[in-house]
Specification:
Strand content: under 5%
Shape: globular
Distance between the termini: 22 Å
Radius of gyration: 23 Å
Structural class: mainly alpha
Number of strands: 0
Length: 278
């Protein structure tokens, strides 16, 4: 069999990748550019494309703004996003393992039903969900943001597809022959095998929970918000200082950038590992 020789990508491939990278980086630079200037810079048609020297001042205005409650909002976002990510990964992997490797009556119908719920807009459940949390006294608490997001239909579908392709049935049967229970088989065989897909699901879920605005804006009090809700209060005045607003937006992305810096290598390694296994 003829051995395939990989050739180095041509120059235009790097050119396309560089253009895509610049396209993704431009919104961040624009936010930093406006966030480093005064309130009137965005309305100046002759504005310089070089950053100004007011970013730290604008960032301080966000952090010290009593209406924003920045540190409380930051903690609420970190706490809720991390808890939601861990819960979604665990329950999605557990359900995905059941659909992929366990044989029980109605499994296919139930999986189709779970996938079908993805077609239902989340906005349709806002009113009954708010009434439910109002009756149990959870409105205004961070628990009302966390509990509805503890599971994910997309996560179940994602993990089901991955485990079906990655874990051989013979490996599951071997664990059962050795006397392992269903949960022990999942814990020792399924969970380690699901690590690449689980890492991606955790990152996507964390980012989605971090950026969630609609439901937290409805159910939380302004004194105890998440970070996106708190930053929206910067636009509540008659005059909106967009330099301060965009400085706050950049501050809200710093935890996500730190997360990707520390987990990016594991994410890429997980993708490559899953590709080799597949």
């Amino acid at each position: 069999m003829k051995k395939h020789v990989w050739s180095r990508p041509r120059w235009y491939v790097y050119g396309i990748l560089a253009a895509v990278l610049l396209g993704f980086l431009f919104p961040y630079y624009w936010s930093f550019l406006i966030g480093s200037k005064d309130a009137y810079a965005i309305r100046d048609p002759n504005m310089s494309w070089l950053p100004g020297g007011n970013f730290l001042k604008n960032a301080s205005s966000v952090i010290n703004n009593p209406a924003v409650n920045f540190w409380r909002a930051l903690w609420n976002s970190i706490y809720s996003s991390a808890l939601i990510s861990v819960s979604v990964v665990f329950f999605s992997t557990l359900a995905g393992w059941a659909f992929a490797k366990l044989r029980f009556k109605g499994s296919k119908v139930l999986l189709v039903f779970v996938i079908g719920t993805m077609a239902v807009p989340s906005q349709l459940g806002v009113v009954p969900l708010y009434l439910l949390f109002s009756q149990i006294g959870w409105t205004g608490t961070i628990g009302a943001v966390i509990v509805p997001a503890l599971t994910s239909a997309f996560g179940v579908f994602w993990m089901t597809q991955y485990l079906q392709q990655t874990v051989p049935d013979e490996l599951v049967e071997a664990a059962r022959v050795d006397g392992a229970s269903s949960f022990r088989t999942f814990w020792t065989v399924g969970l380690p095998a699901a690590r690449p897909a689980a890492t991606m699901l955790a990152l996507f879920t964390f980012v989605s929970a971090w950026n969630n605005f609609f439901w937290p804006f409805i159910v939380l009090d302004p004194q105890d918000p998440t970070l996106p809700v708190a930053l929206s209060l910067l636009q509540a005045n008659y005059f909106v200082d967009y330099s301060v607003v965009l400085a706050g937006v950049l501050l809200s992305t710093i935890p996500l950038l730190i997360l990707f810096v520390f987990t990016g290598r594991q994410l890429v390694a997980g993708i490559m590992q899953g590709a080799v296994k597949g």
